UniProtKB/TrEMBL annotation, chains A, B:
Record's signal peptide: 1-15
Aminoacyl-transfer RNA synthetases class-II family profile domain segment(s): 186-544
Gene3D superfamilies given in the database record: Bira Bifunctional Protein, Domain 2, GAD-like domain, Nucleic acid-binding proteins
HAMAP family assigned: Asp_tRNA_synth_type1
Protein known as: Aspartyl-tRNA synthetase 2, mitochondrial
Gene: DARS2
GO molecular function terms listed in the Swiss-Prot or TrEMBL record: aspartate-tRNA ligase activity; ATP binding; nucleic acid binding
Superkingdom of the source species: Eukaryota
Keyword field: Aminoacyl-tRNA synthetase, ATP-binding, Ligase, Nucleotide-binding, Protein biosynthesis, Signal
CDD domains, per database record: EcAspRS_like_N
């Protein structure tokens, strides 16, 4: 009996094809127009609204319409602005005797109540048109009105959510979501993801495959949430990424796979991470023979280096207190000295360091750094990694300072992409520099030209990892993977001293004809952030967690009774000391990232 | 510097737009053709393969091509069949002196090794064409060959995975995935989901929104996995569905939301659930005055009823041992007696019960049940719910039996949809029938016509829940939700005696202008199962868990050291007794379901 009784129960519904481009409220920093769905026939007999509030124009004059929406505001007892998420429309409250009941509904319903009105589209009286409002030429002459759901006193006004505190926004997220900015962000995000899918699936034959989120602990996978099972002592882990599964899918012959995957990371919250790489120029050789003691000391160290970046117009626009700020910042955040260097192209220059330089050294420096009039150099001498980090950070700090001084450096409407490549495959462990750890993860393949070094000088091997940067923010990264079991085992066992037992299934898989492959993962939240110009990823996620991993709306995580956790054979063990940092815990699950993996031909030498 | 250095590292890749329709191997029970992606320009300079194995035809004759794939098999040292997931191609192994190295590679590489060959497309010698093979008119004359990755001895042959044990398939899932059936299932699944997305997003303006999976325990949400946080004693839950979030999105004004959501359910494994409803006819009145004692006893009970189903042709095709099987089944699974009743339209009939019936009762029964010659009735007398369940199950059992006897009842190529509606809103608790529990969940709205009963006789209220059934299997369900805070609070507090504190955020949300709304959730795994004709949902999931919730490939869940769980302030508490059932635990996370919610106008009377 294939008769849709169920639908009969749904009877009248708001559901209806959109027409206009939505939304029409507010004006975000960076506004892209949302594409309107294609017009489709009104297949649905359960629809009650005949139009959306936002789509009505003069072309609808004289039409009888039924609209549903929220009461945005009321002007005296005469007008009422109705809102749905396609726009605003003005409704004229009838004043005549015969319509007292309708007037009562429309005048007494609190702001943000849900109402349904039926009436006629009429043109506004001459002079009362509102050109700022897409529906500003018309208004609705109401015949009937119905209060669908009243609204209690709001904790804040929907209109100006920007002024609200983060905590208040999170506690009443469902109200915050009504703001035009959040509506715009989440609707645009949905369309961006859809475009990605259409491109991958429809144009390039990628296969969308869901991989499990209840999995086994991954080596080095600290910061993975644990999920107790009903088997005493046994736990699942929530993986930080489908790392292993996507490789197993390659072995399984899904030659083009992608997924919008959840990534669970249990770690202290990072604000929008600043990229820690930069084009820096190594100027060690310039100072090799310079009679500057502290520089010489640095160069004697194994990892010692001297690097510099050029701040265009730095000499002209930055003030001495800026230099102090910069130097202090470097000391505070990196415990690293930096020296501003001023060099006129003439060769003259007034910074302390400049005085100590020979003419020849100055000119080399000017040439190397492509120094122009009124530029400024920032020079750092110290351990390689630290020097790179500090200069990378300072480069952005200086950009902010210069922009604060009115120098136009970055156009927020432009998208500048940058690939960062040739990362080292391994880095010395901080706790014990004689041992190595993966710069990214143990599955990254060595650079084809460095394969031989893997077995002699692993620390010198470059990786086939690549990062993608948009306007200075890292939005994704990926790598060509090791597809050779022996090489993978060598890296895990010999180089990294990892326990390979936990990865036996992966090593085994590589042995059964794994194709060469690689891929990339994009941080979707970050990407949408940059596209919408949102200040935080929390503005592009429907229900984000707080810095401390709390859901302020439902108050998760919450206490559970011993009975509730009993089936999982665990009990709570109250800690001796609860140190602040340890309590911190943020969930990056909402940092969903698009996983796409495709075979390539990264070569791998056998031992 | 927006220059794609990173890509340079990826150099030659297999990646390439597909052309043919894939896959061409195997022949699944129910084969739908996979749509081929639209042709796009070869944008990618890192591509190494010029074609896929499956797409070559006579039209390619004379072309030089580079192919990558797995060695499917080798005929003597003369031919080699290369496979990728777009098809098979025959490669001629060169025999001449000059090509010894190429011959060596192609002859010595083990089966399922990954190789790359370059050569010319030539036509097969007359008489050697293979019409069964889409590429059967041609073959490849090889110039160069390269072994990209050798394959060790396989635990089983890829070709015939059907014969393998479930456990073996799961342990080597990445090999199992190479089978044409799994490739077909997962590729089709991906396309089905994509079509759903295109329909919802592009045609109907639905917004795709991800909701958190680390959330707070939901009332009555037993069987939710718990996730310990770093705050002593505090836990997250993995929700069984985005239940609350989708409603909060409605309040937030996303008037058309959907999501392909993960559902986590920690419960004993159910094989493909059989629907427990059926069109049964209540025949209690027929027997009201019949002098049949055990029937009278039943009718005296409060929930007592007598129901029957008609098995067309049952009298003709089913044997007496079938009847025994059926009766035994009912007793074993439902502890319920059922009686076969044979009634000739003439009124005669030879079953024990028939003898006890008056002529008038027989004729009523024949009329009520629309009994035809050679039909058979199955009659069950007992508690209403139990009788419905047993007859619903037996209806399907009998269908299987009849089909086993060669009666054609169900065409697997046809899709029959059925809506099941007007469920009761509440059911008496099994443990205490004087108390009520939700038939589905506490957020379902009462039927508009029954609203008044909610406050007087809640047990009589019908719900606005609806289930969707495809070919006898439940594939989804949904409901119009309560959008009125008072009504929701009344249901939770007064009717269900739930602790509303845990849902204060939802109740509050309903108070701030929640629009009337409803939705539906489809069980994607189940749906794809029915479309592909797969025997189990594990055949439409890339990495399923076993019945006991184990990942047999990686051996998850696994033990963790006290150190590893220490940050979560829990410790393992070994149980006194570990009873078998308690250990059972299956993960339905892979039962992703499509959540789509849209406002409707379900009315709700206030108290």
């Amino acid at each position: 009996m294939p008769f849709p009784w169920g639908l009969c129960l749904m009877h009248r519904s708001w559901a209806r094809p959109l027409r206009g481009t939505a939304p029409l409220l507010g004006s975000p920093a960076r506004r892209l127009t949302l594409s309107a769905p294609r017009r489709i026939s009104d297949f649905n007999s359960f629809v009650v609204r005949t139009n959306t509030c936002g789509e009505l124009r003069s072309s609808h004059l004289g039409q009888d319409v039924t609209l549903c929406g929220w009461i945005q505001y009321r002007r005296q007892s005469l007008f009422l602005i109705l809102r749905d998420f396609h726009g605003l429309i003005q409704v004229v409250i009838p004043q005549d005797e015969s319509a007292t009941s309708v007037k009562k509904v429309l005048c007494e319903a609190p702001i943000e109540s849900v109402v349904q009105v039926t009436g006629t589209v009429i043109s506004r009286p001459p002079g009362q048109e509102n050109p700022k409002m897409p529906t500003g030429e018309i208004e609705i002459k109401v015949k009937t009105a119905e209060l669908l759901n009243p609204c209690k006193k709001l904790p804040f006004e929907i209109k100006d959510f920007i002024k609200k505190t983060e905590a208040l926004r999170m506690k009443y997220r469902y109200l915050d979501l009504r703001s035009s900015q959040m509506q715009y962000n989440l609707r645009l995000r949905s369309q961006i993801v859809m475009k990605m899918r259409e491109y991958l699936c429809n144009l390039h034959g990628f296969v969308d495959i869901e991989t499990p989120t209840l999995f086994k602990k991954t080596p080095g996978g600290a910061k993975e949430f644990v999920v107790p099972s009903r088997e005493p002592g046994k736990f699942y882990s929530l993986p930080q990424s489908p790392q292993q599964f996507k490789q197993l899918l390659m072995v399984g012959g899904f030659d083009r796979y992608f997924q919008i995957a959840r990534c669970y990371r249990d770690e202290g919250s990072k604000p929008e991470r600043q990229p820690e790489f930069t084009q820096i120029v190594d100027v060690s050789d310039v100072f090799r023979n310079a009679e500057i003691e502290f520089l010489q000391d640095v160069l004697k160290e194994p990892q010692g280096t001297i690097k510099a970046i050029c701040i265009p117009g730095g000499a002209k626009y930055l003030r001495s207190k800026d230099f102090e700020t910069i130097k202090q910042f470097a000391v505070d955040h990196f415990n690293q000295e930096v020296s501003p260097v001023f060099l006129k192209t003439s060769g003259s220059g007034k910074s302390p360091l400049t005085k100590l330089l020979k003419e020849e050294e100055k000119s080399t420096l000017i040439r190397l750094m492509r120094v122009q009039e009124e530029d400024m150099l920032l020079l750092a001498a110290g351990e390689h990694k630290k020097v790179c980090s500090v200069l990378g950070k300072l480069r952005l700090e200086c950009a902010d300072l210069l922009e604060a001084r009115g120098v136009e450096l970055r156009d927020p409407a432009l998208f500048h992409f940058l690939w960062v490549v040739e990362f080292p495959l391994f880095l010395p462990k901080e706790e014990d520099p004689t041992e190595l750890e993966s710069a990214h993860h143990p599955f990254t393949a060595p650079h084809p030209n460095d394969g031989h070094l893997l077995y002699t000088e692993p620390e010198k091997v470059r990786s086939q990892h690549y990062d993608l940067v948009l306007n200075g923010s890292e939005i994704g990264g990926g790598s060509i993977r090791i597809h050779n079991a022996e090489q993978q085992q060598y890296v895990l066992e010999t180089v990294l001293k990892e326990d390979v037992k936990m990865l036996s299934h992966l090593l085994q898989a590589l042995d059964f004809g794994a194709p060469p492959h690689g891929g990339i993962a994009l941080g979707l939240d970050r990407l949408v952030c940059l596209i919408t110009g949102a200040p935080s990823i929390r503005d592009v996620i429907a229900f984000p967690k707080s810095f401390r991993g709390h859901d302020l709306m439902s108050n998760a995580p919450d206490y559970m009774s011993p009975e509730e956790i009993e089936p999982y054979h665990i009990q709570v063990k109250s800690p001796e000391v609860t140190d602040r940092k340890d309590v911190k815990s943020v969930i990056s699950e909402t940092e969903s990232s698009q996983e796409l993996v495709f075979p390539s031909l990264a070569k791998a030498e056998n031992p």
